[in-house]
Amino acid sequence: MNRCTKATIYKDNLKHNLEQIRKYVKPDVKICVAVKADGYGHNAVLTAQLAEELGIHFLAVATVDEALELRNAGIKANILLLSICTPPEMNDLFEYNITPLVFSHEYINLLIKTSDLFCETHNVNKKFKVHLAIDTGMGRIGCYADEAGEQAKLISDSEHLELGGMCTHFAVSDSLTDDNQEYTKKQYEQFKLAVQNVKDCGINPGICSCANSAAILNNDDMLFDMVRPGIITYGYYPDDITEQYLKSKNKDFSLKPVLSLETKVVAIKHFYKGQSVSYGRTFTCEQDTDIAVLPIGYADGLLRRFSPGLEVTINGKNYPVVGRICMDQCMVNIGKNNKEVKLWDKVLIFGPRESGALNTADDLAKLGNTISYEVLTSITKRVQRVIE
Questions:
Q1: Residues of the chain whose pLDDT is less than 50?
Q2: 105 neighbors 83 (Cβ within 8 angstroms)
Q3: Can you give the C-alpha Rg of the chain in angstroms?
Q4: Do 12 and 355 form a contact (C-beta atoms < 8 A)?
Q5: How far apart are CA 358 and CA 254, in angstroms?
Q6: Which of 341, 344, 355, 334 is nearest to 288 (CA)?
Q7: Which of 46, 56, 145, 371 has a CA between 20 and 30 Å from the CA of residue 196?
Q8: In angstroms, rounded to a whole number, what is the distance separating the alpha carbons of residues 242 and 223?
Q9: Is the peptide bond before 308 cis (omega within 30 degrees of 0)?
Q10: Catalytic residue numbers?
Q11: Which of 65, 73, 135 is nearest to 93 (CA)?
């Protein structure tokens, strides 16, 4: 691909973040790196390969197809499927050694039937691990704490399934308000109760995990057997748990953004005072000026709501995007007779410092009233990923 709009993945920065996580948690605590949504837009296979090199044995995906991509790329690590799959996908769980989350009688019974049939068809007799999801307050998938023992017994009594672990997910661990910190503690206590309920049934709960990126950094007492880092893997802090906050707590944890989004100037046009730019005529030139056209738009992940407000970096200086961002293009006001901006110059939307960008995904997130996660995962497949 020769398109000038591309995303560069800084491999050394990704490795740095993974090493930071490994050093930060205790050696006996396992790590499950979230590589769903193509590694938050950063190339899931690359992230998985680096994780394996560093001795990280668990990866988390959201779909069976995401898991198959890793297996087809030669990834041997344990793969945890965080979302529910459909009955036609279940056979792949056992064929490719993918560990699903389970939580309901109906779903567990479907998996039992599928695993029995798989073993009969393939003439094997083995146990496949599943992890029991507990809903402690996220309001998503998972059984309640007082149901955990019953669900674990259903798994334990089956011929070809076994309980390999238990997990829950925190809803507001990235918030520092007193109410939300208290809510996280309540979720943690509910999870402990669920684990104890399983133990009381004489069943080994397996590998227990509840700590996401925010809890890893801010709730050292909630790490259990395994942690599940997401956004920190890719160089961004989770909401209120910022680098400055961590330093105030004497915690040393540095991150490096991994991805830069860039394009080039493909046209420069002179505009007279009073002329408008783009759909809806939301921007009108207040004086004669030059407008640079960039071949990147919301179909690439540059969300329409980023303008007005978005600035992009050209040759070490920021210039404002003007008018509405289009599906495939956007326009930048570079000022009249600007000799510092030329045709085919590189334009950086955001990225780490070494890319030359003056913005990060967090800066764009603030403009769009969203979070860095959405900015990163919105970069579409037509944007080529280049590993550096």
A1: none
A2: no
A3: 24
A4: no
A5: 19
A6: 334
A7: 56
A8: 19
A9: yes
A10: 36, 279
A11: 65
Provide φ and ψ at 363, rounded to 5°: -65, -40
Residues facing residue 78 across a β-bridge: 58
Structure tokens at 43: 């190339």
CB of 133 closer than 8 Å to CB of 168: yes
Residues 148 and 133: their CA atoms lie apart, in Å, by 9
Classify 177 in phi/psi space as left (phi over 0), alpha (psi -120 to 50) or beta.
beta
375 within 8 A of 298, measured Cβ to Cβ: no
What is residue 2's predicted lDDT score, i.e. its pLDDT?
84
Please tell me what DSSP assigns to residue 51.
H
Q: What string of DSSP letters covers 201-248?
A: TT----EEEEE-HHHHHH-GGG-TTEE---GGGGT---TT--HHHHHH
* Residue 124 Ramachandran class (φ > 0 left, ψ -120 to 50 alpha, else beta): beta
Q: How far is CA 57 from CA 163, 231, 248, 291, 324, in A?
A: 18, 18, 32, 50, 45
CA atoms within 13 A on the CB side of 222: 25
The pLDDT score that the predictor gives to residue 120 is 96
DSSP 307: T
- Helix pair 44-53, 64-72: axis angle to 10 deg: 60
